[in-house]
């Protein structure tokens, strides 16, 4: 028998990405665009085509967003010509991996497809429409804004927090605008398109599960084929790690199940828990030793489950990978660019490596964006970053009527199959905040008996996951409280904590003892360079017109002010305001994370809102829309470090909590000292400790350490080796924190400059805003608190020489100290 795995398949796949043009055909089109034929990039979108043609300005600058709303109200037609000649194959399929969104596709004047879903793939038999020689392919897009409005009238209005009815169209909700995002309402061929020619049969669907066994692992493959010839017997071969297995598909059958034992297969682990070995899987389809088609996947052997077994404290939501509990150090992910087709593999890698460098181990892909790219999941597999993908139903009541119902099922089938081979994927989640909305936001009155999406979350999605990917855990929503009183209950399941940002001080995070936090966060502006590049206001102030355009949150600036004043005084200059708000964001999130982590294993994870931005904006992100690190990123790195020491309130007392998120026992002596701001030791204690792997230990503070003589001028320092935690008895604004007095040493190092800063007095949260010295400068260190005489070392990377006086200026070197006195 011929080794079909060694032969090239006969299927021919031809990308159709060349020669496209676009034109506006209806809508409120400016004269400069009306009648113009625009070169178009595929994959791409109309905004990037208009930008490339010089017909619009950058939508991210000033208030260009408002000036470009006409784009989403316009019908656009894309067209290309390709040559074709008969090659002997029986079938010729047009395949679209993504159309955004409402499209009619014609081939040589014949309609071959009508679509209205950005989130699914389409395959159509184009045999009858193809001609020898030149073939004209046209994709006519209707206005997504108008389509959503019309469908909303048909379905009936549903509750949502934003004006445009994104729940009535299967398109990225965030493309209509969000509280951190620009409204673009794009159109275009946003993922690849190709012509596939084949005969006899092709591989239509591959689902694989790489499961650990006591001997190593077993690969289970479920494969479905599409036939052009029902009377031919087929053979399917699967290869992994040098081992093969085969199955026969008799005439009339179109599915096969194959298992391949992989003795000695190594386990795939999340970052910080072990290595990430990956195995290539190859599948080949043949008929009578004639190669027909092939497919590949890359897998890792691991098990994943979320423990929701009720216990004495309620209901946990605890991730176990390979039966080992994992404390989730997560971030929420939004599309990395509002024009998502600009995010390539290199950009995904930059962002995910920034996440990895901050100690993050899970990326939650939020349900108002997109089902993320194969590039993101591939990189997460390689880096050990766990992934959680929401189904794309967010912050709204969704109709359950046709045709929306069928579209949602079709996209879910597509995406479950596409994503389920990735070892990084540990949760598919039915919705974002929709269960909360129904229970807590007054939706039931507004719905007046109308459908809201329950069918999807509790029936459709779990049944599809059980059918197509039973090895992937599923939850109906985020937040979700299994066995609890509602969808937002500290004692049960996952919670979102937004009262702090919206109405409360961030110290009230400590009032919560949640089992798992899936969303919480605090706002801060983008880095100074990113802000100045995007907003040309003169003068630039927190309330200047461009700043307001780049602040999308309801009463965002008011909440920034209210959240700052309990801790710091309000600066009277713009750069001071900018630093104060960035620092307060970092402190709010760091405080929350340290608190949540101190309650492990009661609390088993926290996912910060959010890692990234999609444009230059004041937002909850740690990395801004120009890919620059905000101080919040340094706070994540500190709070997510493998080992941390923090001082936490426990009732009316204080305690030191040591968290050991490593695979080794942590032993040593903890020294705890109450000191004056001048460094003088007032009281001291030392005690040995031993913390098991992945363990947490709480050590109460003796009264003489926990009780200050002068709260405004004292702190507690708890340290072991180079790991320490601090507790200040008073907020900075209520303390006698003096202006920072600093000494500097600067030396060139490979790739940049090393800055050594020594404090002559107590200095809190010393940071370098290095983008002010050079727009491409980066430091992965920040937020140092130094006792008198202590030194911090910053390694500043920059691609070309940097202005040293600028690097050492007061604009760059920032501390909390200058936010205390007016």
UniProtKB/TrEMBL annotation:
<dbReference type="InterPro" id="IPR054593">
    <property type="entry name" value="Beta-mannosidase-like_N2"/>
</dbReference>
<feature type="domain" description="Glycoside hydrolase family 2 immunoglobulin-like beta-sandwich">
    <location>
        <begin position="228"/>
        <end position="302"/>
    </location>
</feature>
<dbReference type="InterPro" id="IPR036156">
    <property type="entry name" value="Beta-gal/glucu_dom_sf"/>
</dbReference>
<keyword id="KW-0378">Hydrolase</keyword>
<dbReference type="Pfam" id="PF00703">
    <property type="entry name" value="Glyco_hydro_2"/>
</dbReference>
<dbReference type="GO" id="GO:0005975">
    <property type="term" value="P:carbohydrate metabolic process"/>
</dbReference>
<feature type="domain" description="Beta-mannosidase-like galactose-binding">
    <location>
        <begin position="37"/>
        <end position="191"/>
    </location>
</feature>
<dbReference type="InterPro" id="IPR006102">
    <property type="entry name" value="Ig-like_GH2"/>
</dbReference>
<dbReference type="GO" id="GO:0004567">
    <property type="term" value="F:beta-mannosidase activity"/>
</dbReference>
<comment type="similarity">
    <text>Belongs to the glycosyl hydrolase 2 family.</text>
</comment>
<dbReference type="InterPro" id="IPR013783">
    <property type="entry name" value="Ig-like_fold"/>
</dbReference>
<dbReference type="GO" id="GO:0006516">
    <property type="term" value="P:glycoprotein catabolic process"/>
</dbReference>
<dbReference type="InterPro" id="IPR008979">
    <property type="entry name" value="Galactose-bd-like_sf"/>
</dbReference>
<dbReference type="Pfam" id="PF22666">
    <property type="entry name" value="Glyco_hydro_2_N2"/>
</dbReference>
<protein>
    <recommendedName>
        <fullName>beta-mannosidase</fullName>
        <ecNumber>3.2.1.25</ecNumber>
    </recommendedName>
</protein>
<dbReference type="InterPro" id="IPR017853">
    <property type="entry name" value="GH"/>
</dbReference>
<dbReference type="InterPro" id="IPR050887">
    <property type="entry name" value="Beta-mannosidase_GH2"/>
</dbReference>
<keyword id="KW-0326">Glycosidase</keyword>
């Amino acid at each position: 028998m011929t080794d079909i795995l060694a032969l090239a398949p006969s299927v021919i796949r031809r990308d159709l990405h060349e020669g496209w043009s676009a034109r506006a055909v209806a809508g409120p089109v400016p004269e400069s665009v009306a009648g113009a034929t625009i070169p178009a990039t595929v994959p791409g979108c109309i905004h990037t085509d208009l930008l490339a043609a010089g017909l619009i300005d950058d939508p991210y600058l000033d208030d260009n967003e408002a000036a470009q709303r006409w784009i989403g109200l316009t019908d656009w037609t894309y067209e290309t010509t390709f040559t074709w000649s008969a090659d002997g194959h029986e079938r010729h399929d047009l395949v679209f991996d993504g159309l955004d969104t409402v499209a009619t596709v014609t081939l040589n004047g014949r309609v071959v497809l009508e679509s209205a879903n950005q989130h699914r793939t389409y395959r159509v038999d184009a045999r009858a429409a193809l001609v020898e020689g030149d073939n004209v392919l046209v994709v006519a897009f209707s206005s997504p804004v108008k389509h959503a409005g019309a469908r909303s009238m048909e379905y009936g209005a549903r509750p949502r927090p934003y004006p445009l009815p994104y729940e009535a169209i299967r398109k990225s909700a965030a493309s209509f605008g969000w509280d951190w995002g620009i409204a673009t309402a794009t159109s275009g061929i946003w993922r690849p398109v190709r012509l596939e020619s084949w005969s006899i049969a092709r591989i239509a669907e591959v689902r694989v599960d790489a499961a650990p066994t006591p001997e190593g692992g077993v690969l289970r493959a479920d494969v479905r084929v599409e036939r052009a010839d029902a009377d031919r017997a087929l053979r399917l071969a699967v290869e992994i790690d040098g081992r093969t297995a085969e199955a026969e598909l008799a005439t009339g059958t179109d599915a096969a199940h194959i298992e391949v034992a992989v003795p000695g297969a190594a386990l795939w682990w999340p970052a910080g828990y072990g290595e990430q070995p990956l195995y290539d899987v190859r599948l080949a389809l043949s008929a009578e030793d004639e190669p027909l088609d092939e497919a590949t996947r890359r897998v890792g052997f691991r098990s994943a489950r979320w423990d929701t077994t009720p216990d004495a404290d309620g209901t946990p939501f605890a991730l176990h990978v390979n039966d080992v509990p994992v404390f989730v150090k997560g971030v929420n992910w939004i599309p990395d660019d509002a024009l998502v087709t600009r995010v390539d593999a290199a950009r995904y890698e930059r962002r995910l490596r920034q996440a990895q460098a901050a100690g993050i181990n899970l990326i939650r892909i939020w349900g108002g964006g997109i089902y993320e790219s194969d590039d993101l999941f591939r990189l997460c597999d390689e880096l050990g970053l766990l992934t959680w993908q929401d189904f794309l139903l967010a912050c709204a009541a969704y109709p359950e009527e046709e045709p929306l119902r069928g579209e949602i099922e079709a996209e879910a089938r597509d995406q479950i199959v596409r994503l389920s081979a990735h070892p990084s994927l540990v949760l598919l989640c039915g919705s974002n905040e929709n269960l909360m909305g129904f229970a807590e936001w007054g939706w039931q009155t507004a719905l007046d008996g109308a459908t809201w999406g329950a069918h999807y979350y509790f029936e459709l999605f779990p049944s599809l996951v059980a059918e197509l990917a039973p090895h992937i855990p599923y939850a109906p929503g985020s937040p979700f409280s299994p066995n609890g009183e509602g969808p937002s209950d500290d004692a049960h399941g996952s919670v979102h904590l937004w009262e702090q940002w919206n109405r409360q001080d961030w110290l009230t995070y400590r009032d919560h003892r949640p089992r798992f936090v899936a969303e919480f966060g605090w706002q801060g502006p983008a880095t100074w360079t990113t802000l100045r590049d995007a907003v040309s206001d003169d003068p630039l102030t927190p309330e200047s017109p461009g700043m307001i355009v780049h602040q999308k949150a309801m009463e965002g600036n008011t909440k920034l002010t209210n959240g700052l004043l309990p801790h710091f005084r309000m600066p009277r200059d713009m750069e001071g305001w900018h630093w104060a708000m960035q620092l307060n964001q970092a402190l709010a999130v760091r405080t929350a994370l340290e608190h949540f982590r101190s309650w492990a294993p009661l609390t088993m994870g926290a996912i910060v809102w959010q890692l990234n931005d999609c444009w230059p904006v004041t937002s909850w992100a740690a990395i801004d829309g120009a890919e620059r690190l905000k101080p919040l990123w340094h706070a994540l790195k500190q709070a997510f470090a493998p080992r941390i020491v923090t001082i936490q309130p426990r009732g009316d007392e204080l305690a030191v909590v040591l968290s050991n998120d490593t695979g080794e026992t942590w032993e040593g002596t903890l020294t705890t000292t109450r000191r004056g701001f001048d460094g003088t030791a007032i009281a001291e204690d030392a005690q040995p400790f031993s913390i098991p792997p992945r363990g947490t230990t709480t050590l109460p503070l003796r009264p003489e350490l926990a009780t200050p003589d002068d709260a405004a001028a004292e702190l507690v320092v708890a340290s072991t080796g180079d790991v320490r935690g601090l507790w200040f008895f008073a907020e900075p604004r209520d303390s006698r924190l003096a202006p920072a007095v600093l000494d500097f040493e600067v030396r060139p190092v490979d790739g940049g400059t090393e800055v050594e800063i020594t404090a002559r007095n107590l200095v809190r949260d010393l940071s370098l805003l290095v983008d002010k010295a050079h727009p491409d400068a980066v430091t992965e260190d920040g937020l140092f608190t130094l006792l008198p005489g202590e030194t911090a070392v910053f390694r500043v990377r920059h691609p070309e020489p940097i202005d040293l006086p600028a690097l050492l200026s007061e604009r760059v070197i920032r501390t909390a100290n200058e936010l205390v006195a007016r």
